[in-house]
Amino acid sequence: MESTSHNFKENARRAIADPHIQAAMAKMKVGFTGKRLAATQRLPEFEALRDASRDIKNHSLANLDFYLERYEAKVIESGGQVHWAPTAEDARKAILDICRRVDARTVTKGKSMISEEIALNDHLEAAGMTVVETDLGEYIIQLRKEPPSHIIAPAVHVSKEQVEADFRALHTHLPADRNLSEPTDLVNEARQILRQRYLDADVGITGANFLIAETGTSIIVTNEGNGDLTQSLPRVHIVIASIEKVVPNLEDATTILRVLARSATGQEFSAYTTFSTGPRRAEDPDGPEEYHVILLDNGRSAMLGSDFQDMLRCIRCGACMNHCPVYHAVGGHSYGWVYPGPMGAVLTPNLIGVEEAGHLPNASTLCGRCESVCPVRIPLPRMMRNWREREFERHLTPSSVRSGLWLWAFLACRPVLYRRLAGFGIRILGALGRRKGRFSSLPLAGGWTKYRDLPAPQGRTFQQLWAQKQKNEKRGAVK
Amino acid sequence: MTTARSQILGAVKQALARNTPGDDPQDMREQRLSDPRPGLIPERSRLPHPAQVDLMESMLNELSATVARVSSGDQVPESVSEYLKAKNLPPEIRMAPSRDLQSLPWDGQHLLKISHGPAREPDQVSVTGAFAAVAETGTLMLHSGPEGPTTLNFLPENHIVVLRASQIVGAYEEGWARLRKVFGNGYMPRTVNMISGPSRTGDIEQKIELGAHGPRRLHVIIVEDGDSPA
Amino acid sequence: MSKPEPRVGLFVTCLVDLFRPSVGFAAVKLLEAAGCRVEVPEMQTCCGQPAYNSGDRADTRAIALQVIEAFQGFDYVVAPSGSCAAMLKAHYPTLFDKEPELAAKAADLSTRTYELVSFLTDVMQVSKVDAVFPRSVTYHDSCSGLRELGVRDQPRQLLSTVGDLSLVELSDADTCCGFGGTFCVKYPDISNTMVSSKTGNIEATGAQTLLAGDLGCLMNMAGKLQRSGSAIQVRHVAEVLAGMTEDPAIGLSGTAPGDPRSGGA
Predict the structure, then answer these.
(1) Domain containing A429: what range?
(2) Which of B150, B176, B210 to mutate to test binding with chain A, by most A CBs within 10 Å of its CB?
(3) What is the mean pLDDT of residues B72-94?
(4) Beta pairing, strands B158-164 & B125-128
(5) C114 and C163 in one domain?
(6) C258 inside 8 A of chain A by CB
(7) What is the pLDDT of residue C260?
(8) What is the pLDDT of residues C12-47, one digit of tens each?
(9) What ipTM was assigned to the predicted interfaces of this complex?
(10) Does C60 share its domain with C152?
(11) In this structure, are strands A106-109 and A130-133 parallel, antiparallel, or unpaired?
């Protein structure tokens, strides 16, 4: 997917001014956070399960080569095929080759962020195939030709009126006077439209929340059932997953599944959690004849052994963005690429470079709410700061910021000079601000005073007053 | 020759060797694959079996599934007919070709049309068994196989599951233990579906709607077959 | 439990020093009332957060060394700010990865450093204050204090002992106000959206006064409240707990250099 992350500030400005997005964010921030809280309060073992999940992911990552090799062996043993894809292009090629070989005309897709990352749809469509997104949210944004704005709820930024307008514009074979005013009408229409697509599909492509080394299994976690129809009905099922998705065994996957849905939507378990292993067996009455797994690297191995290894623990629940006040302010599209919110701020520079995505880890107050809800305890603020350090080292930080920091540090390390200048400056500023008590504008403070007043200083520094007090007390004592 | 495989695995090995002080011992990792142990299991479902059955029922209700309880398999066909009537559905079901289900007294339901096999597009109601059910969250475990075509779980709008009380366990881990007994350690059927309620979506303004693509209705008939879990 | 008359070094914080010394005096009063002997090292300016959060590790380290030096020998180091206290306590130790001697000094400073209100309750076992403040009050949880230092119940507990004060809980009290140090001037549009959301919640409480434990957050919220014409008064929680609320609230006029505490000048 093409990135607009370098344009983050402008993206954000537009999003802030967009009433649709603001209304959608106002709704989502209350919904998701409340539901997660209720779910976590209902399970006394939740915090312990977070620790256990973190430990399982850490162990998996520390032994990733071992588990990947064993996973591959099991997939092959069960009749599946594994394709290793170092880059996005390798993955696209592998998938296109499979689709071409089976003469695929229609390809259905379950929701997959990896497929966005590698820009799969465009590639298949350019080769003449019809690609149908079956997750309702993905279907909606496919119609709108937009990228997803959230990793779990891709169309969270779209209102029901907008969906109605899109459906009317595109489903022209349906009676124009039909009622589409409620979500239930829209869902029913999507169900109808997509039904035939499922049945027509030659190839079904899904992502995978986890891959299990013990059994060679891929897991998808959905609520709609679209992923299951996508992978059961066509002749060929392709799973596309990045390499860090591997965990050792079924029990490990189960532990993490206990925190996944609760963190994402506040559900105890998703409606459909499906474990797939290989193609149909000889005695199976239905199921795909071919099962392929594309194992994608695309920057993950470079994160291993780096400051950013912990980011590979991410289980793609979306809790971080659900709780992030910056995400609430600007919505997912502002981040400019596949992964928004705090996890996107850390992951995106790793995948597409910090020159392109540098704004993302900077546009944060490091408030820590994300880390406080991350089911696998990823230290997101710390890693955002790591990016800022890298940018500073490489002089990617704007020069105005660098000079400001240099001056501040210069003074801060010279307390005597600092006190003198501060005492002087504060006296002036205090005098200027005395009448109103605050400034509605001030030279050099435009960033602040654009939107808020700046309280005036009291007029003396604490150090001055304290020194004076000490002097007076001594005088008093002497008297 | 560097293959894509060796490229990726090589990069991974190099990254780990560089920064991780020593791998976990080989036999510890092997054991994790050959002899997996359960992790932390919540207390919630550690109950005497009858209470687990009740927990399963209340969890299913919370999930907007419906539940009927019958005291023996003989009552299942009647229960199915009653359900169809109550929901104004035509008396026609597509059944999983399982011996368990087929051995029930369907003859008594004269008006009920029954066919067996994978789901086809016009089928409105499917009837399947289950492999197990997890009371912890009201989750059904079904798997693919000659007695369980997967499409029956997803295509029709109405999915009826006939569940024996003895199939109900407390935690997911007990379900995996049972599955391993059948399929062997490290082996799985093509698909294991863990189903918790009917299909749903919140993709439009986060309002939860049922019946997105999978079944709109999930109905579970619990047969009190009197056994504790095996 | 603390020694009799523990020797406390007050970490003033740059914002308190420059903009609102009365918070520093309130902190001293509270600490002395709790039985501490308070000193204010002269060689302190800033905790180094602006440099740290901008990725300037070298300058952060230089400032940290100065702080470590200045606060040697005190039983406790107390700051009327969750973010500054967290900087010393949680982050200084990470600045000296490959320098074991300095790392040890930073670790030692860390064990002695506290945010003001939680120091009073958790270490000095203060369970009530003598102040009176007949107003309705709402409280914002500053992020660092809350998440890095666990400061949440303590200010509420002490406020509940302030005479005639009624506390109205702020909805989303634990959501960031949008200050974030340099963030508010680097990303002003986003910061404004965040602080507007916060002030909307503040106004919705109907409270007369807003309190918090961090001056940066307070100046941000006060500035926004006042720009939007609100009459809500904003103070640092220390001022209320110390019963020192004669000074105009943040951003209001009338601050005079003839301050009784300074003995004139």
Answers:
(1) 405-478
(2) B150
(3) 97
(4) parallel
(5) no
(6) no
(7) 43
(8) 999 999 999 999 999 999 999 999 999 999 999 999
(9) 0.95
(10) no
(11) parallel
